[in-house]
Design brief:
- The complex is a heterodimer of chains A (297) and B (310).
- Chain A has 297 residues and is mainly alpha-helical.
- Chain A contains 14 helices and no strands.
- The longest helix of chain A is centred in the middle third of the chain and has 33 residues.
- The radius of gyration of chain A is 23 Å and the shape is globular.
- Chain B has 310 residues and is an alpha/beta fold.
- In chain B, α2 packs across α3, α2 packs parallel to α4 and α3 crosses α4.
- The longest helix of chain B is centred in the middle third of the chain and has 16 residues.
- Chain B is globular.
- The chains are: A mainly alpha (297), B alpha/beta (310).
- At the A-B interface, α1, α7 and α14 of A face β6, α2, α3, α4 and α5 of B.
C-alpha cells in the first residue's frame, strides 16, 4: 500500500460561516438521488403529470371547446357539475393521484433510514464534533426530504397547471390562479409533517425496517380508524386523525374551496391543528433524540 | 499567554446510575498527551465531553480557554476529533464524507474538495478517495476518520483509539503525523488502551480507571517500575533448547517453559535486552515468530491500585 510520507502542514485557507444546514441538505439530496428507486418514483410521478398534460393537449387538438362540452355534459348529468370543470377543485382531486401514494412510497424508500443510519454508523459523532447545531442538522435533513416529497407531489401538479394554462382559453387563469401558491403552502405543510414524523419514528426505532413498519401501521391504522370512528359516532371530526384527510382539507382551505367540503370532512382548523400538532410532537421527539444520542448509542 | 488546551474541574458524567467519569480535575497546556485506560475507564466519555457530544453531570471543562456548555459550537472550529467508534455512511465515498465534513466546517464546495484531497493525501489515502467507506477495511476507515479530524488544522486534536485496526506501517505513519502536528504547536490528546502505542509519541500521560484519574505525569517514571516486573515472551522456532540455555547463562531470563518442541515461554525482567538477543537469533533463522504479552497497562494498574484494577 502506497503511504505518502506523512508531513503535517498548516492550512491557510479561509473559512466562512455559511449556514451548516446547507451541506447536510446537499448530502441528503445526493444520498436520495443515489437510490434508483427514489429516482424512479420521482420520475414516475412527473411522468404521470406529463401524461395528463399530453392528454390536455390532445383534447385541445381534437376538440378545442372540449372544456365547454364536458362542463355542459356534466350539468346535464347532475346539478352539481364541479367535477367536470378544470378549476382549483379539480386540482384537489389530483391529491389522490400524487400525494397519497407518492408521499407514502417515498417516505418508506427514502426517509426511513436518514437519522437511523447516522445513529447506527456513528456519523453523528463526527457531525457534531463540527460547529453544527442539532437544529441545523435536522433542518438540513428535513429540507432535502421535503424537497423530494415536493418534487413528487407539487412537481406534477405544477406541470399539469402549466399545461392547463397553456392549452386553455383566455380567462381560465382566473379559475386556477390560486393553485400554485395554495398547493405549495398546503403541500409544504403536509410534506414537512411527514418528513418530521418519519424522522421521529426512525430516531425512536433506530432501524429502517422498524421505521417502515411503524410508519405503515400508523398510516393504515389511522386511515381505517378515522373512517370507523366517523361511522360509529357520525362525527366527522374523527376523520382528522387521518393524515391524508387533513392534507386534503388543508389544500381545500388554501385553495379557497372550503365551501365545497361536505359534512364528511373534518373542519379546516381541526385539520391544521392535527398537522401542526404532529409536526411539533415529531420535532420534539427528534430534538430530544439528537440531544440524547450518546445515551442511545 | 495562551489559554491551556484543556482545563477541567471536578468533571463528572453519569449515564443513569453508571459512572462514566468522576471528578476529573486536570490542566493540559500543550503537546501530546496520552490518555490511557482500559475499556470503560472513561476515555471516550472525556472525549465526548470535550467535543460537546454530551454534557457534564457535574463540574466543568474548558477547551482552548472556552467553557464547553450546551449551545457552544464555535469552539468546534478549532478542534479535530476522530471518534473511537467506527464512523461511516454505509455507501458514501470517502472523499464525499470528507467534503461534507469540510463544508459543515465552513468551506465552500470548491474549498472542501481541495481540503478533502489534501487530507486524503496526508493520511496516505489519495488514491482511495472514490472508494466507498463500506468497502474499506477498518484500518482504512480509521485513516479517513483521522483525515476528517485534520481537515481544519485543529489547535486541539482528539484521537480516540486511532490505531485500532491499522497495519504496522499505517500505525507508524499515523504516529509520525501526530508527532509532526505537536511539533508545529498543536495539542494532541491520544486515547488508547495500549501503552506502547502512546509511549511511542509521548511521555506525558493521564491514566484513567473506572472514570477516575488514577495517575498523571511522566510515563518514564512508571516505566522504570514496570521493567522490574517479570515479562513473558513466547518464541517459536528451531534449536530452542540451545537458545534457552544461552539466555539462562547470560541471566537474561528468569525462567523458561517448553510448550512443545517448537515453542518456548521465556520469563524475563529485562525485556528490551531479551528482545535484542532474540532479534539476533531471528536474523540467524532460528526464530519463526515472537510474541510478548501486552499487559503493561494492566501491570500499571496492578501497581497503582494493588491488583484490584482488572
Amino acid at each position: 500500500m502506497a503511504f505518502r510520507a506523512a508531513e503535517y502542514e498548516r492550512f491557510h485557507g479561509e473559512r466562512t460561516s455559511r449556514p451548516t444546514w446547507i451541506p447536510i441538505a446537499t448530502a441528503t439530496l445526493a444520498r436520495g438521488w443515489a437510490s434508483k428507486w427514489v429516482r424512479r418514483m420521482s420520475f414516475l410521478s412527473l411522468l404521470m403529470g406529463f401524461t395528463i398534460v399530453v392528454l390536455l393537449y390532445v383534447f385541445n387538438q381534437i376538440a378545442p371547446d372540449w372544456r365547454h362540452l364536458v362542463e355542459t355534459a356534466g350539468s346535464r348529468v347532475s346539478e352539481q357539475n364541479d367535477g367536470f370543470r378544470i378549476d382549483s377543485k379539480f386540482y384537489l382531486h389530483l391529491l389522490g393521484i400524487f400525494v397519497n401514494p407518492f408521499v407514502l412510497i417515498l417516505s418508506l424508500m427514502f426517509g426511513h433510514d436518514l437519522i437511523a443510519s447516522d445513529l447506527r454508523t456513528n456519523a453523528m459523532e463526527a457531525y457534531f464534533s463540527r460547529p453544527i447545531t442539532p437544529l441545523s442538522y435536522l433542518f438540513g435533513r428535513t429540507v432535502a426530504f421535503v424537497g423530494f416529497l415536493m418534487l413528487a407531489t407539487f412537481g406534477p401538479i405544477m406541470l399539469i397547471w402549466c399545461g392547463d394554462l397553456l392549452f386553455s382559453e383566455e380567462g381560465h387563469i382566473d379559475d386556477i390562479a390560486n393553485v400554485p401558491l395554495g398547493m405549495f403552502l398546503s403541500l409544504l405543510l403536509s410534506c414537512t409533517v411527514v418528513a418530521l414524523m418519519v424522522q421521529a419514528i426512525t430516531i425512536l426505532t433506530r432501524s429502517a425496517i422498524w421505521t417502515n413498519l411503524v410508519f405503515l401501521v400508523i398510516f393504515v391504522m389511522v386511515q381505517g380508524m378515522g373512517a370507523m370512528l366517523w361511522g360509529i359516532t357520525d362525527n366527522s371530526s374523527f376523520l382528522a386523525i387521518s393524515y391524508f384527510h387533513d392534507t386534503y382539507v388543508a389544500c381545500a382551505a388554501t385553495l379557497g374551496e372550503l365551501d365545497g367540503l361536505t359534512a364528511s370532512h373534518a373542519s379546516a382548523p381541526l385539520a391544521f391543528s392535527v398537522l401542526i400538532g404532529l409536526a411539533v410532537v415529531s420535532f420534539s421527539i427528534i430534538m430530544r433524540g439528537l440531544k440524547r444520542r450518546s445515551l442511545l448509542a | 499567554m495562551s489559554a491551556p488546551a484543556l482545563r477541567c474541574e471536578s468533571l463528572s458524567r453519569w449515564y443513569g446510575e453508571v459512572q462514566g467519569l468522576a471528578g476529573l480535575t486536570v490542566t493540559i497546556e500543550s503537546g501530546i498527551i496520552g490518555l490511557l485506560g482500559p475499556n470503560g475507564s472513561g476515555k471516550s466519555t472525556l472525549m465526548r465531553l470535550l467535543t460537546g457530544q454530551i454534557h457534564a453531570s457535574r463540574g466543568w471543562v474548558e477547551v482552548l480557554g472556552e467553557r464547553i456548555i450546551p449551545g457552544t459550537y464555535d469552539i468546534f472550529r478549532r478542534i479535530g476529533y476522530a471518534p473511537g467508534e467506527d464512523v461511516h455512511f454505509e455507501s458514501e465515498r470517502s472523499v464525499d464524507f470528507l467534503k461534507l465534513m469540510a463544508r459543515i466546517g465552513g468551506d465552500s464546495a470548491q474549498q472542501a474538495r481541495e481540503r478533502a484531497d489534501k487530507a486524503l493525501e496526508l493520511v496516505g489515502m489519495a488514491s482511495k478517495g472514490s472508494v466507498r467507506l463500506n468497502a474499506m477495511s477498518k484500518g482504512m476507515r480509521q485513516r479517513i476518520k483521522i483525515a476528517q479530524a485534520l481537515l481544519f488544522d485543529p489547535e486541539l486534536l482528539l484521537l480516540d483509539e486511532p490505531l485500532n485496526g491499522m497495519d504496522p506501517i499505517s500505525r507508524r505513519k499515523t504516529l509520525d503525523l501526530v508527532r509532526d502536528m505537536a511539533e508545529k504547536g498543536n495539542t494532541v490528546i491520544l486515547a488508547s488502551h495500549v501503552l506502547h502505542e502512546v509511549e511511542g509519541v509521548t511521555d506525558h500521560m493521564l491514566l484513567l480507571h473506572h472514570g477516575r484519574l488514577l495517575a498523571e505525569g511522566r510515563l518514564s517514571e512508571i516505566r522504570e517500575l514496570i521493567d522490574q516486573k517479570p515479562r513473558r515472551a513466547t518464541v517459536r522456532g528451531t534449536e530452542l533448547s540451545k537458545l534457552g540455555a544461552s539466555l539462562l547463562a547470560d541471566d537474561l531470563v528468569s525462567g523458561l517453559e517448553f510448550v512443545d518442541d517448537g515453542c518456548i515461554h521465556l520469563d524475563t525482567r529485562n525485556l528490551p535486552e531479551l528482545l535484542e538477543r532474540l532479534q539476533i537469533a531471528g536474523e540467524e533463522g532460528l526464530i519463526h515468530s515472537l510474541e510478548t504479552d501486552d499487559q503493561e497497562l494492566e501491570m500499571i494498574y496492578d501497581m497503582l491500585v494493588g491488583g484490584s484494577a482488572r
